[in-house]
Amino acid sequence: MISFPLVQSSPTLNPAASATSTATRTFLIPHHYHTHKLAFISSQFSHPADLPRRLNRLRIQAIDAAQSYNYEAQLVNRFSQSTKLKIAIIGFGNFGQFLAKAFIRQGHTVFAHSRSDYSSIAQSLGVAFFFDTHDLCEQHPDVILLCTSIISTESVLKSLPIQRLRRNTLFVDVLSVKEFPKNIFLQHLPSHFDILCSHPMFGPESGKNGWQNLAFVFDKVRIGNEKSRLTRAETFLDIFKNEGCRMVEMTCAEHDKYAAGSQFITHTMGRILEKLQLQGTPVNTKGYETLLNLVDNTASDSFDLYYGLFMYNKNAMEQLERLDLAFEALKKELFGHLHEVLRKQLFGKSEESPRLVLAKLPKKNRTSLLPASTSETETVVNNTLVNNNN
Ligand code: NAP
Question: Residue 70 Cα, ligand 1 centroid: separation in angstroms?
């Protein structure tokens, strides 16, 4: 990256920056896609005494004159042979920024667009931020990476001016559910675009100390047969491989089944524990520390993300019900034991007493006093009742 004085470019590239009134405004522009454009220094001085300095600053810094006749072709060729990608991140929130850092670290060119203004964060990371998706698509990124919330992804995808992209652009998503983005990609993207669905199974919190051995799930939903397209998909996957991720290829449907039973349960437990407002104590056990970490790992994610895990994974509801049943079963087990203890305390060694007490109760009240799981007890009681009636 090189820092240019005000580069003559689309005014929408960074309107926030162009609104400033400083004498020299700088933009961070990756050198390999703006090298041949004119660069000026812009000045706004209020005092005539500044004129000589102003004229001096209004010189042309670079021109694209006298380039060889096939300069553009050479440039394109050089880029297509390069192992570096131009990646456009759509949705530059928590996770989009987290991924951008790794992309930049590995030498890729990163563009970003988001609903909110992240231009200064982008600039600090070395990312070119675009307020307008038309401008972004006209940069012809190799990869469009959707990092939007699960629930907003379809409307964001539909709003992209995909006609401005190169015909075989690779679309990738990192949503935490997989069948849903696969289906909307297939539904909304013309068949000449490539599709790679992926899910890095970690986030800014769990991946803050590196990605070594963290799982990266992917499904090559539709990649064209040409060598350049196959290579491009591999180059994108290599980013995660290079960081040490455990690469797991599986279908989107398989992912959603596994993820509902693991990730959704993890997030649900984290959110339940968060509601308990657990605090550290002077006698924390290792297990308790694990619970506190679980809250940190899950509660810092947006509720949109958690809600998306539930709404857009058809297996999530079943897991929620299983969780409910498991909790009820556990409570019954505990209360069953409690019932036994209480009975012993109340009646000592006399086993006849509870039966007699129960026998005197109206029939509808008897069952509610019995432990649900002890059908044996029920039989004994019924026998007793029969005996008593006799
Ligand atoms: P998130 O709350 O799931 O998504 C936030 C992003 O979505 C922001 O970029 C936000 O844009 C955008 N967004 C939300 N509503 C929008 C709308 N109505 N229109 C346009 N954009 C909208 O939080 P996240 O953690 O950044 O996750 C992003 C994606 O990565 C999700 O699909 C998530 O499943 C996936 N993922 C996250 C993690 C993780 O640990 N966080 C791990 C793996 C995968 P603005 O900020 O500009 O408003």
Answer: 42
